[in-house]
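Why this split exists: single-chain examples teach little about how molecules sit against one another. For that reason, every record in the complexes split bundles all components of an assembly together and asks for one structure covering all of them. Below is a record exactly as it appears in the raw files.
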Amino acid sequence: QVQLVQSGAEVKKPGASVKVSCKASGYTFTNYAMHWVRQAPGQRLEWMGWINAGNGDTKYSQKFQGRVTITRDTSASTAYMELSSLRSEDTAVYYCARGSYCSGGSCYSGGRLDPWGQGTLVTVSS
Amino acid sequence: QSVLTQPPSVSGAPGQRVTISCTGSSSNIGTGYDVHWYQQLPGTAPKLLIYGNTNRPSGVPDRFSGSKSGTSASLAITGLQAEDEADYYCQSYDTSLSGWVFGGGTKLTVL
C-alpha cells in the first residue's frame, strides 16, 4: 500500500536549520508531487510548498519563501524539507503528503493530499 | 487568518446529523477548484475524507458526504458516532496565492 514514513523528532536552537525526510513506498515516486504541511500546537494546517518528484520543480508558499527548501532523491524515493533560520514560532509537527499525479513535466494544481506521513515534531527552543 | 472559513466547533448527539461549512472566495472555491476534506483524530495525521467535492475514498463510510456550491462547500455527517469526534479541515487551491489553502478547522464534539 502507499505509505509515507518520516524521520524522527528534532530539537533545534533558534537560528539553526532542520531537515526532515519523507520516504515513499507502494507507488512510483517520480509520478507524483509531494507536499509539505505544518501544524503548530493547537493550530490549523498550513501549506508550505511542493515538489514535482519527477523533475524537481518546486513551488513555495509566500510565507516560507526564502527559508524553506524542498528536494528529493529519486534513487531513495525520498523527499526532504529543510527550514532555516528557525524561531520559536516554527515549533510544529511537519507532515509530508502525496499530491497530484504529474504528467509531461507538470502536476495538476489543486489536487487532494493523500496519504500523509505520520508527522515529525520539530521543537525550537534555546 | 485562514483563506477558507470554517466554524470553530460543532456538536451533536449520537445518531444525529451535523454539517460543517467551508466558505471561500472567487480566487479559490469560486474558480472551480475542487474542495477536499480531511479528518484528524487526536494525536494523528490528517486523513483524506472527501475528495473532489463529493467523492469518498475507499473505506470511508457513506455517513460522510460532501457538497459544493458557488464559493462554499459543506461536509455532512449523519448517524453521528463517538469515533467521529475529531477535527475536520477543508482544503482547496487559491489562484491569488498560487498555493494550497486550508480552512481553520472545525472541532466536532459528540455529546
